[in-house]
């Protein structure tokens, strides 16, 4: 139940990114980089805005939301907020990754593969309970997002035409 709640922001991000990707491919392929960049920026703003709001609500009221959706028998752990934040980081990084794929920037892929390998090894080696897994996801997803922001620094922070 906690996992399903935390994945709400992730699902919204993929809905937005799913609409963003083909439009950016079309605009970029037609030489309209300005339109592609604006779609990326708007998508990023929507994912960050909606994801942050949902993550805050989940982090502040985990049991209330859990009881409302799943019933009173579910006790939602306090780590749900950390898990929701980890998935928010992954959601934002996913928007970056799909944008990069749309504009044919592929150098980020080896880094993501390395991050996934490190995550798998860390979980298999060090995780004793669910809290360890959640903190591992949080740390790795933080680094993935940081890398994607740095990799796309100009597209993220340049003046929006």
Q: How large a portion of the residues is in β-strands, by DSSP E?
A: under 5%
Q: Whole-number radius of gyration? A: 17 Å
Series of H and E elements: HHHHHHH
Instruction: State the end-to-end distance.
Output: 43 Å
Q: Quick check: average pLDDT? A: 89
Query: Residue ranges: pLDDT <50 for 5 or more in a row?
Result: none
- Mind summarizing the main beta sheet? none
**Which structural category do the helix and sheet elements fall into?**
mainly alpha
Number of helices: 7
- Percent of residues in helices comes to over 70%
Q: Would you report the number of β strands?
A: 0
Short description:
The chain has seven helices and no strands.
Q: What this model shows, in words?
A:
Helix content is 83%, strand content 0%. The protein is mainly α and 161 residues long. Helix 1 (2-29) packs parallel to helix 4 (80-102) and helix 4 (80-102) runs parallel beside helix 6. The chain starts with a helix and ends with a helix.
Element layout with pairings:
Layout: H1 2-29, H2 33-60, H3 62-70, H4 80-102, H5 109-126, H6 130-151, H7 153-157
Helix pairs in contact: 1-2, 1-4, 2-4, 4-6, 5-6
Which short descriptors sum up this protein?
mainly alpha, 7 helices
């Amino acid at each position: 139940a906690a996992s399903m709640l935390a994945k709400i922001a992730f699902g919204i991000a993929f809905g937005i990114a799913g609409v963003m990707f083909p439009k950016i491919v079309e605009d970029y392929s037609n030489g309209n980089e300005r339109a592609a960049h604006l779609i990326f920026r708007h998508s990023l703003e929507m994912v960050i805005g909606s994801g942050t709001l949902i993550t805050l609500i989940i982090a502040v009221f985990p049991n209330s939301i859990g009881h409302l959706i799943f019933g009173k028998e579910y006790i939602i752990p306090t780590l749900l907020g950390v898990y929701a934040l980890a998935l928010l980081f992954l959601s934002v990084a996913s928007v970056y990754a799909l944008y990069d794929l749309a504009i044919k920037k592929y150098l980020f892929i080896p880094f993501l593969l390395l991050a996934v390998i490190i995550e798998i090894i860390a979980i298999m080696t060090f995780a004793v309970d669910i809290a360890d897994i959640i903190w591992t996801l949080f740390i790795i997803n933080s680094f993935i997002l940081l890398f994607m922001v740095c990799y796309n620094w100009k597209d993220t922070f340049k003046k929006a035409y």
